[in-house]
Amino acid sequence: MKLIHLSDLHIGKKVNEVSMLEEQKHILSQIRGIVREEQPDAVLIAGDIYDKPNPSAEALTLFSDFLSELVRTVRPVFVISGNHDSAERISYMNAVLDGAGIYMSPVYDGQILPVTLEDCFGPVNFWLLPFVKPAVVRHFLEEDEKEEITSYDEAVRKAIDRMRICLEERNVLVAHQFITAARRSESEEVFVGGLDNVDVSVFESFDYVALGHLHRPQSCGRPEVRYCGSPLKYSFSEVNDVKSVTLVELGSKGEVGIREIPLHPLHDWFDLRGSYEELTAHDFYAGTRYQDDFVRLTLTDEEDVPDALNKLRTIYSSIMELRYDNTRTRSGLTVVGGTADVEKKTPQELFAELYLLQNGTELSEEQTAFLEETIEKAMENNR
Q: Given this model, what pLDDT does residue 342 score?
């Protein structure tokens, strides 16, 4: 059985106030071409269909057109809601859409039933798990079970435990969560202190796990637990990423083949650095895609260049960001450590570091107690 795995379309997204709709139209058309060529048995779309819970009319139309074209080539199409989506909007009219071969994840209600397809090796069960928070899962548990669910890991584990999975058959899960130690990019939503972490062991019952949420294609723990990544770059941390769709071939139980099919954007992203004189030299940009594609320019001049942005736009038509890197900018306060350090620290530790950085003194005992109480209340509301 051949599957195509997509996620994180973020239809309607703007980057630095620049609409990505034209880029998305181009890449979705390319994906439809891949589907026509590969003729898969199903398409899996693992959440973050839209960039906002209330997408624009243009975003709704674009995804509707995309789905309509897909089901002319392949049925079924499985779709779940991500953390950027409204679960209610994604599940709207799913009873009608099921008949058209489009299976939208329902709003989580404590139970998930599979959709089963057959091939020459027997049944394959598809389980659609929308993005869930601890509070969502706890709502459907008995009182004596609720206290057990205090983290995202426990919430997802409990949701999967409640599925009646036949381990002798092949099982595919479509989910949208953050797996511990997976590589993030700057365009993703980050939960402070790693509160949204889920351990990869949660998914051991599944032959393939089609994940959404992270924008870099990668496998976690084992090849069959996989983020396909977003089909487009949405930040300069993704400049060197090669975007793709993931093609999965299920053989008999335990046999899974995976390959990436590269995607080619309408406009690429470039991170350019140098002095104003270097960046405006004809030999630097002539014959490149820099003039038309999305660029971030970092000027190394010690003095600010008057009206630099407007001057540079005469060469680089799609500047996403202009910044300076010089003695003055490097002399400002910086936080020690990077993203990896941040993810390992608790919210209390991060706030205490920020307070020390801004005020030159540590939190008092009274302030620390107030902080811990406030964070605990906030986390409780989020569960």
A: 57
The distance of Cα 145 from the centroid of its chain, to the nearest Å, equals: 30
Cβ-count burial 24-62 (b if 16+ within 10 Å, e if not): bbbbbebbbebbeebebbbbbbbbbbbbeeebeeebbeb
- 280-283: long-range contacts (C-beta < 8 A, 24 or more apart)? 280/311, 280/312, 280/315
Query: What is the C-alpha separation between 381 and 205, in angstroms, rounded?
Result: 31
Angle between helices 57-73 and 21-38 (to 10 degrees): 10
> Are the CB atoms for 215 and 187 separated by under 8 Å?
yes
Give me the chain's average pLDDT, please.
88
CA separation, residue 23 to residues 28, 62, 263, 304 (Å): 9, 12, 12, 33
The residue assigned the tokens 């994906």 is: 31
Identify the burial level of 226 via C-beta atoms within 10 angstroms of its C-beta, where 0-12 means exposed, 13-18 middle and 19 or more buried: buried
Question: Residue type for 4, please?
Answer: I
Token pair 């620290």 in the structure block, residue: 345
Residue 227 has pLDDT above 50, yes or no: yes
β-pair type (318-324, 294-299): parallel
Distance CA 371, CA 383 (A): 18
Helix/strand/coil for 211: strand
pLDDT at 233: 96
* DSSP letter assigned to residue 125: E
Q: How far apart are CA 230 and CA 363, in angstroms?
A: 41
pLDDT at residue 383, as a whole number: 52
- Residues with Cβ within 8 Å of 364's Cβ and at least 6 positions away in sequence, in order, are none
SS3 assignment, position 112:
coil
Q: Is the pLDDT of residue 194 over 70?
A: no
Task: For residues 4-26, give the mean pLDDT.
Answer: 95
Is residue 187 pLDDT above 60, yes or no? yes
Confidence of residue 380 (pLDDT cuts 50, 70, 90): low
Whole-prediction pTM value?
0.82
Helix or strand holding residue 99 (H, E): helix 94-99
Do the Cβ atoms of 276 and 300 come closer than 8 Å?
no
How many other β-carbons are positioned within 10 Å of the β-carbon of residue 108? 22
